[in-house]
Amino acid sequence: IFILFLFFQILGAVILGFGIWILADKTSFIAVLQTSSPSLKTGAYILISVGALTMLMGFLGCLGAVNEIRCLLGLYFTCLMVILITQVAAGLVIYFQKEALKEELSNIMKRLITDYDPVNGDKNLQDAWDYVQKQIACCGWSGAMDWEDNTVLINKSMSVYPCSCSNSSKDSEEYTGFCKLDGPLNGTATYVDWPVHEQGCMDGVQKWLKDNLGIILGVCTGVAVIELLGMILSISLCKNIHSEDYTKVPKS
C-alpha cells in the first residue's frame, strides 16, 4: 500500500506539472487554445489544484497508514472518491457536449485566422498557430479557404498567403508571416492559387486524436483503476484499525 501512496505522490506531481505546462507553453496547439479560450486557462488552474491535492492526499494516506490513524485514512478515501467522481463527471460532460465544444473550438480558431496580423497582432499567439500549421502540415482550421476572411489578405487582394501553410520548398525556411505569390495575377487571387497544404488543421488534430485514442483511454482507465484500488485499500486498512493511538502522530 505504501507503493500505492508513493504512486499518488508521483501522479499528483505529473498532474501539477501538466497544468503548469499548459500555462507556460507558447509553441503548440495547447498554447493557441489557452491564449484564446479562458475556459482552458481555468482548466489548467484546476489541474494544478488537483495535482497539489493528490500529492497532499498521498502524503496524508502514507502518514495514516504508518501511524494507523483512521481519520487520515478516511480523509484520504474521501478525497480520492471526490477526485474520481469529478474525473468521471468531466469525461461525461466532454462526451455529451462534444459537438458544442467542437463548435466553440472552430469559432476560436477561425477568429484567430481572421485577426492574424504579423505587424499588429499578438506575436506569441500567432507564432504558436504558425507552429501548429507547420508541424501538422495543414492550412486554416477547416481548410485554406478560412484564410480568405483575413483582413490583411483581403487588403492585398489575396496576393500573399501564410508562409506556415506553404507546401513549397522555397518557403521551407519561413515559419511566420505572409509570403508573396510568384508571377503576375489576373485580378484577385483565391486560396486555390496558393501553394499551400489542402488539409485543414481540424482534420490533422482529429487524426492525431484518433491515432492516439487507445493510449489516451488506456492512461485514463489506468489512473481510474489505481484510484479505485487506493480507495479499497485505504478503507480496508481503516476498518482493520480497531483503536486510534494519536501519540503516534509525529510532533512538529
Automatic annotation (TrEMBL):
It is found in: Membrane. GO terms for cellular component: plasma membrane. It comes from the Eukaryota. InterPro entries: Tetraspanin/Peripherin, Tetraspanin_animals, Tetraspanin_CS, Tetraspanin_EC2_sf. It is a multi-pass membrane protein. Keywords: Membrane, Transmembrane, Transmembrane helix. Pfam families: Tetraspanin. SUPFAM superfamilies: Tetraspanin. The chain crosses the membrane at residues 6-24, 44-66, 72-96, 215-237. The keyword Cytoplasm does not apply. Belongs to the tetraspanin (TM4SF) family. This is Tetraspanin. It comes from Anseranas semipalmata.
